[in-house]
Amino acid sequence: MDPMELDLDFSVDKIKDFLNNKLEAVRLDNARLQETLTKRKQISLNSSAKHGSTLVMVHPNVWKKLNNGKYVIGMNLDARAAVMNIRPLLKWDCAEPFNYVTNIYGEFQGAHDVSECALVTNTVARVTTAVEGSLTITITFEIPTCPDPEHVISGAISVRVQNEEIVVPMAPVSLSALDYANRSLQNHNPRLFSIENLFALISASENSDLVMITPENRSMDLGSLFEIHCALTKLEVGSSCKSYYLSYNVSGAFDGSLVSVHDPGEAHTYFITIYAGDNRSLFALLHHLHSCATEIVCFPQTYYENYAARNTLGCEKLLQDFRKSMSDEVKFVREILAGNSVDGFGDKLAALERETDRLYLKVSNMRH
Fold it and tell me: Quick one: which of 258, 270, 287 has its CA closest to 222?
C-alpha cells in the first residue's frame, strides 16, 4: 500500500463512535467542574457562616403560604449590625428554572411622616437601605409544574455587613402537593389573620396605587363605605395612618384582594392601594366598588397631581368669571339708577342675572 495513501473510510459507525467519545469527554469534564464548584461553595458557606454568625442569624423556623397561585416562604433574620444587599441564594430539585422575587420587611422605630404613610404598620416598613434589627424576608414564586409531588428548597442568605459579604445558611423548605388543600397555608379568614398573612398577601399580589375622591355632600367616610356598602372586612392591623380592608366571601372574582386606605388629610380625597392576584381581579374589584358608590371618582395616583392642578386652575377661573359677572350686573344696575337710558333694559338685566346665577351654582358645587 502506498504510504501516501490515506484511509478515507468515513463510515457512519466511525463518525458515531468519534462523536460519542467526544460527548463522553465533555460530560466527564462537566461533572468534574460541577464537583469542584460544589466543594468551593460549601467551603465558602462554612467559612462565611462562621464569620458572620455573631452578626447575622437566620431563624430556623421558615413559614410558607399560598396566595394567588404562588408560594410565599418567609424567614426571620436578626442583624446585630447594619446590613444591606440582602440576597437569597436558593435552588430546588425541580427540573424547571427557579425564578423568585424577594421582599424584605424590617422594624421601624421613631417618628414617621403620617402624610406619606409609607409604612406597612406602625412598626414595620419595606426595607430598601441598610438596616439592623429583626427582618422578615419573603420569597415569592409560582407553584411548580414538575411532575414530582414533592420538592425541597435549600440555600443561604447573602448580606453585606461591615463592608464584607456574609453568607448564612437557611433551613431547607419542603413543598408538597398536600399544601394545595391545606387551608392554614391560604387562610384569608380575618379572624385568624396574622402579620405573616399580610406579608404573604402583599408579596404575592400585583399592586395598583389609586386616588379616590368622594362627593362633598357624602357624610360617610370611605372606610365606612367599604365595610357597609361593599362588604369588605376591616383587618386589625396596627397602623395609625392607613387601614386595610379584605375581600372575604364577597365574590370569587376578587376574594383575597386587599385594599389599603390612606387619608392624607385632604378633604374627600383618599390614597388607596389595591393588592390583587392579577388585572382581572383588580378590575372586578374596582367595578364592585363603583357599583356600591357610583358617585366616587377613581384614577391612578400618577394622574393625581395633574388632576389637582387642573381642578385648582378651573376653580380659580370659575371664581374670576363669577366676580366679573357680578361686577357687570351691578354696573348695569347702577347705570339704570343713574338715569341712563338702555335699550332692551329688561332682557339685558335678565341675561346678566341668569349668567350670575349659573356661575354661582357652579361655585357652590365646586371642590376645594
Answer: 270
